[in-house]
């Protein structure tokens, strides 16, 4: 899975380099000012896929992790959701730039993406807080159980 994800990153970067080359070599006054945004979108997607592959490689292959410990699962989920948050935030920003450059049909999707980021960030904060609190209670219960034996 990691090799497939990294192959996809290489494919996306290939598209990026081809688009950059075409943008540089075919400069004319009638070019669309939004053309560079597609390059940024591909770079953002490649970054998100790379980070996902790197997270899977680190968490599932390189690290020995105890699947019964909530903290390791919470860390993996937090890293993955953080990657998604960054990717959606960049996309929302780019979409907002498109709206600011005169394509007003992108305004509502940009706002919706930003609201999705805020909601996901709040949900992640609640998940991390409650998970840490639950782990603390479990640890205290184990210590109490061992001390009573």
Strand tally is: 0
Helix segment tally: 4
* Apparent shape: elongated
Strand content: under 5%
End-to-end separation in angstroms reads 46 Å
Fraction of helical residues:
over 70%
Q: Which residues form runs of ≥5 with pLDDT under 50?
A: none
Report Rg: 21 Å
Largest sheet: none
Helix-strand makeup class: mainly alpha
The arrangement of helices and strands along the chain is HHHH
Average pLDDT level: 84
Salient structural properties:
single chain; 149 residues; mainly alpha; elongated
Compact description:
The protein is mainly alpha-helical and 149 residues long. 84% of the residues lie in helices and 0% in strands. Helix 1 runs antiparallel to helix 2.
Q: Would you mind describing this structure in some detail?
A:
The chain is mainly alpha-helical and 149 residues long. It has four helices and no strands. Helix 1 (2-25) packs antiparallel against helix 2, helix 2 packs antiparallel against helix 3 and helix 3 (70-100) packs antiparallel against helix 4. It is elongated. The mean pLDDT is 84.
Protein topology:
Blueprint: H1 2-25, H2 35-62, H3 70-100, H4 107-148
Helix pairs in contact: 1-2, 2-3, 3-4
């Amino acid at each position: 899975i990691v090799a497939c994800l990294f192959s996809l990153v290489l494919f996306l970067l290939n598209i990026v380099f081809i688009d950059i080359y075409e943008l540089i070599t075919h400069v004319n006054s009638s070019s669309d000012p939004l053309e560079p945004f597609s390059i940024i979108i591909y770079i953002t997607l490649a970054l998100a896929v790379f980070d996902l592959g790197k997270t899977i490689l680190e968490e599932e292959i390189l690290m020995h992790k105890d699947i019964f410990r909530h903290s390791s699962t919470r860390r993996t989920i937090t890293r993955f959701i953080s990657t998604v948050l960054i990717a959606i935030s960049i996309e929302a920003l780019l979409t907002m730039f498109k709206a600011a450059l005169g394509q007003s049909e992108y305004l509502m999707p940009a706002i919706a993406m930003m609201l999705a980021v805020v909601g996901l960030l709040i949900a992640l904060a609640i998940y991390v807080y409650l998970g840490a609190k639950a782990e603390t209670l479990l640890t205290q219960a184990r210590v109490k159980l061992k001390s009573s034996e």
